[in-house]
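Standup notes
- DV: blocked on the single-chain target, sequence here:
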Amino acid sequence: MFKYHCLNPIAEVGLEKFSDQYVKTEDVNEADGILVRSAAMHDMELPDNLLAIARAGAGVNNIPLDKCAEKGIVVFNTPGANANGVKELVIAGMLLASRDIVGGIEWVKDNQADENISKTAEKAKKNFAGTEIQNKKLGIIGLGAIGVKVANVAKHLGMEVYGYDPYVSVDAAWNLSRDVKHVLNVEEIYEQCDIITIPVPLMDATKGMINKEAIEKMKDGVILLNFARDLLMDEKAVLDGIKSGKVRKYVSDFPNPTTAGQDGCIVIPHLGASTEESEDNCAVMAVKEMKDYLENGNIINSVNYPKCDMGVCSQAGRVAIFHKNIANMITKFTACFGDNGINISDMTNKSKGEVAYTMLDIETAASEDIIKKLQSIDGVFRVRVVK
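- DV (later): unblocked, structure below
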């Protein structure tokens, strides 16, 4: 029996995927697994029995990844589950920035008492004239699940699309329209594109990537779209760009004191994945990932441990070991079983940065003594008996 705890409301369509082997607990200290959306976890005391955290969404900046890795807690996210919802809002953002729709709507509200508003509007509408997106150049920095969807839709809308991603995956490449121009230098996007969007994760390498120097290289009147994370942009530099006329509009899905209410900024209250469909998709994926890990030890879509899939165990036992990615660890693990006359029928070892994950299927169930010996090996974070 496994226990799970929800730090945020999770769509019922996802929770329904749990079998009768699972029970929901209101006490986080009892949980084998935690489901979370936006709740801040950095200051939480993580219980020793916690095995997994599943984020029903893509971003994991609310979760202490390194701390979890050192405790042998696998952190999952749900890449691509909300991609369509975000894609649609990016397209909406392009239209809002290109046509002064927001300004026009506000004018109507301000003049609602005018009995001749229809005639007055015909004179006023020139103040809200914009440009079409057809034949404009769209630059997409990051060709992941969202970037690919945006690129393909933009091509159908008649845009010329430039894509930059030095680490584009095979799956993304297969799904990407052949008409998208894949550039090898991000500066080409800065120099050529009328509209630029950055669907990339927030990491040390991407924080503040759109800064003063990058903006100076852009075309005059560029439109910037940010539906990934606000810290990807140096927003003070963006505001300076708006004041100078270099930046025409900045559309962000992340309200903060820097941009809220500022001229030239269209700030949306983080609605990118706020659709029923996205929330359902994320919940279902998060629960499936957690179940496969808790029941089988398999790791899919983890952000702090490597992908590792050995299917369902058909042997007497399965042991999972979380450890440092250093030499000679496998030799030490196999020796523990060999010295006790236990045959290893299958094994896999995967690494991710400084951490690694080893799973072993054994023909005889592991004793407590063997587990203690494995746990005592220098560099081992955690040993888990899956079966």
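- Follow-up: The radius of gyration is 25 Å.
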